[in-house]
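Q: Protein A?
A:
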Amino acid sequence: MATDTGDPLPRFPAGFLWGVSTSAHQIEGAAELRGPSVWDVFTAEPGRVKDGSTAAVACDHYHRYPEDVALLAGLGVNAYRFSVSWPRVASPGGLDFYDRLVDELCAAGVRPVPTLFHWELPAGLDWLERDTAARFADHVTVVADRLGDRVTKWITLNEPAEHTLLGHALGAHAPGRRLLFDALPVAHHQLLAHGLAVRALRAAGARDIGIANSHGPTWPASADPDDVAAAGFYDTLLNRLFAEPVLLGAYPDGLGELMPGDVAADLRVIAEPLDWYGVNYYAPTRVGAPLGTRSEFGGLAIPAELPFSIREIEGRALTDFGWPVVPEGLTELLCGFRDRYGDRLPPIVITENGCSYEGLDDQERIAYLDAHLRALHAALEAGVDVRGYFVWSLLDNFEWAEGYARRFGLVHVDHDTLERTPKASYRWFRDVLRAQG
């Protein structure tokens, strides 16, 4: 199968971190060997997942992790971003699995990079409650005490924006609440949990800590002042709300007044210094003034009562998920962050970037990744301090409310037999890494 995209990729700096990402709930399976999560409760409710599936088995990574680590080694990545299931850690013997996984990774020469929360909240806990942040810090301490002798790079949270928006504001993800702006305490408590986790990791001796926040440029639908204002509000809600408490120790545009508790004291915790800042990038969002009717983005319904609407980005190829392919948006985003936050912005790692396409000869994915790596290099040339890049994802997995209908993996997984088959994109990325040295 041809995997030549034309000119060779430009060289990235020596020591650049190359990896792939996964998450526990999406690949591990072995649900009977851990406590229930909010996602188990959610997927048990009819109609919540489009194909009616659950992650009870997923990719069975729990039992097949040696095979998956061998795939990582064959790919040639020097890092693997996975997540640690909080419900599994809270179950008898649950940490033993991560002990075995980390040992296998280290033996294969692949750096383990665990994410300590990737949406898998134990059933019975609630991000609307402040105590959940403290409970999370306890969880982090347990994991760091067990794995910290081998794990040197840590991620606190994955995409608190999506977990707030999709899970608590719009009801599309677990726990399935539709609170709209009453979901803001969920954002605050996750950010507080992040800050407490940084403190817990520092206390355990960790020296290389980041967060994985999702970001993308916001494009006004037109130059009309109403569209510009709506786009500015959206950018505040999805980008600045989650970046600025961490980077600047402040909420934007008076949002702190809407948060619970002693916000000033909490912000001092949230803004604990980081060693690097993780960015998950998929696409920009084109935003306009409310239309008075429901709008959609990638199959997600945006209620008419919100003070913005999502508009189509025209003239762009779409992934199978319906997301526009806009690689230059990554350059724009990173340069914009550098300009906005200056020396308050630590080095950046792209903690997720990828696309959903069918087929083993996935030339569309190759073209997507090639273009985004070139856009990332353009940001480097423009002076942005970028230290690493992780593809989402190693395996075709349980794609949350989409079930098994979306395939983001470099490796195809037959969800009946669980057989793994590397795709053309796997071989292409392997060749890229070899060329990069």
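Q: Protein B?
A:
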Amino acid sequence: MLGLFLFCCVALEGCAAQANEAVPSPGTDGGGTPAAQQPEPLPSVLPGRVGTPAASQRIRFVPTELVLPGGAKAAVLPAKTLAGELAVPERVQQVGWWDGGAEAGDPFGSVVIAGHVDSAKEGIGLFVRLLKVRAGEVVVLRGAGHSASYRVDSVTSVSKGALATESGAFEQTGDHRLVLITCTGAYDRARGGYEKNLVVSATPLGLAK
């Protein structure tokens, strides 16, 4: 922003000759000798305000790696919504970033990443670690040579039916945050899945770098 300069005009008042007093001839003092040349007064100028540089362009990126508290890492793959459900990668050591949500470093919206807690074919999944995550721990997203850190502030469980409608996990109009989703609760063999979802919400620790 350019600085704005305010100019203050100085009013110059002439001295009126007193009645019955002789007025010196132009260019002379009272004794008839040339008057000393005096510099004309300059207008007073207030210092201009120094403009504040524009903030650097915000870094935002599609996450390609997730680092959980304790150092466990996973590749992050784009995941689409199919028939109203997020298509999570089948490999249990990989997780999916919802491509309809925010990117890491965005000013608003949720970065949604989901993964399996386990599977019948591959056993324990990476996101089984979310069952022990606590508030205050830090999760890191990386991608395109950048990184963004988030501090966990809540860990909650919701019924499967309430994940999209009541949990706010997919909210894109609020403050920026990271949301991690996996399964939890009792396993329902008849339905072939767990009864609940675990939702981990984390707020950014500064801007992405």
